[in-house]
């Protein structure tokens, strides 16, 4: 005797209310994004306007919003007043080395804190996190004494070595590795005969490469914009970074805003070019860390 086959229940009748598409973007979203972009880009545009005119433009009311034709003259004056190109090269060396150091060393330390078991790991990580609460200005005097004992005053390594890693970078990479690298994958690699360094370089670092790339960019921009520590430790014009070169454009009694803004705009151009080249990858790296974390 065969049993009758049950028919599946029919779907409920559609209601009169239509569901709105999830991916639909309202017009005011674009308006807010456009307004935010204008607010962020206006200081850069205003800097270019002052750099193409003179110091009176910055204090003129109503302010001028049309660039002038004096930029090439002021740029030539910047290049002849201070060794600006040499300073840009020094900043590229310092910021590039610090950026690579942030990407590799912070990932290595984060891997150790996240996946390696050793005595005092949690206490040491707590100390690293607590250092983020200490103002950087408090470390200038002991840091200068150490640099002076090593004979690194007025050298680029005095800027590079203290900035190769940061507590924020170690914390960020540790949290990222703790959520993206599984213990089962590490155990399988150890069964295959891989040591800790091989696991980090061949497995862990490729997994967190987008986040490490973003961290390296943050370290690059921070080192490029740093002023206080280079101002303390650098003495001769041959070792100036770009921020110290801009400071050298000013005298002790007055400031030529047109000249200073021209130097600032020239110093900003490399960062703009860098963002144009790697901006999409930086955003994807940030989103990758946000979704995986």
The total number of structural domains is 1
User: In angstroms, what separates the terminal alpha carbons?
Assistant: 58 Å
CATH topology: MetI-like fold
Q: Given the structure, what is the number of helices?
A: 13
Pfam family, one: BPD_transp_1
Subcellular location: Cell membrane
Membrane topology: Multi-pass membrane protein
Family: Belongs to the binding-protein-dependent transport system permease family.
Write the layout of secondary structure elements.
Elements: H1 27-51, H2 71-81, H3 84-115, H4 121-130, H5 140-150, H6 157-160, H7 167-180, H8 183-191, H9 196-207, H10 209-225, H11 228-233, H12 242-248, H13 257-292
Helix pairs in contact: 1-13, 2-13, 3-7, 3-10, 3-12, 10-13, 12-13
Question: Short summary of the structure?
Answer:
The chain is mainly alpha-helical and 293 residues long. The chain is built from 13 helices and no strands.
Question: Care to describe what's here?
Answer:
The protein is mainly α. It has a single domain (27-287), classed as MetI-like (MetI-like fold, Orthogonal Bundle). 66% of the residues lie in helices and 0% in strands. The protein contains 13 helices and no strands. It has helices at residues 27-51, 71-81, 84-115, 121-130, 140-150, 157-160, 167-180, 183-191, 196-207, 209-225, 228-233, 242-248, 257-292. Helix 3 (84-115) packs across helix 7, helix 3 runs antiparallel to helix 10 and helix 10 runs antiparallel to helix 13. The termini are far apart.
Keywords:
globular, 13 helices, 0% strand
């Amino acid at each position: 005797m065969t049993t009758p086959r049950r028919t599946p229940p029919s779907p409920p009748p559609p209601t009169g209310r239509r569901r709105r598409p999830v991916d639909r973007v309202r017009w005011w979203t674009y308006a807010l994004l456009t307004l935010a972009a204008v607010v962020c880009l206006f200081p850069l545009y205003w800097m270019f306007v002052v750099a193409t005119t003179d110091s009176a433009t910055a204090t003129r009311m109503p302010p001028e919003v049309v660039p002038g034709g004096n930029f090439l003259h002021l740029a030539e004056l910047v290049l002849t007043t201070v060794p600006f190109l040499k300073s840009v090269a020094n900043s590229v060396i310092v910021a590039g080395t610090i950026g690579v150091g942030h990407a590799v060393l912070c990932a290595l330390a984060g891997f150790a804190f996240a996946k390696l078991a050793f005595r005092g790991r949690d206490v040491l990580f707590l100390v690293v996190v607590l250092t983020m609460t200490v103002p950087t200005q408090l470390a200038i005097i002991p840091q200068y004494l150490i640099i002076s004992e090593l004979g690194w005053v007025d050298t680029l390594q005095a800027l590079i070595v203290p900035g190769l890693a940061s507590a924020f970078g170690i914390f960020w990479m540790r949290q990222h590795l703790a959520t993206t690298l599984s213990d089962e994958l590490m155990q399988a690699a150890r069964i295959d005969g891989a040591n800790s360094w091989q696991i980090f370089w061949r497995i862990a670092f490729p997994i967190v490469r987008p986040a490490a790339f973003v961290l390296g960019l943050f370290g690059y921009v921070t080192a490029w914009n740093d002023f206080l520590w280079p101002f303390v430790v650098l003495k001769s014009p041959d070792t100036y970074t770009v921020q110290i070169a801009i400071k050298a454009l000013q005298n002790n009694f007055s400031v030529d805003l047109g000249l200073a803004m021209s130097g600032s705009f020239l110093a900003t151009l490399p960062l703009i070019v860098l963002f144009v080249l790697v901006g999409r990858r930086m955003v994807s790296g940030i989103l990758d860390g946000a979704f995986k974390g």
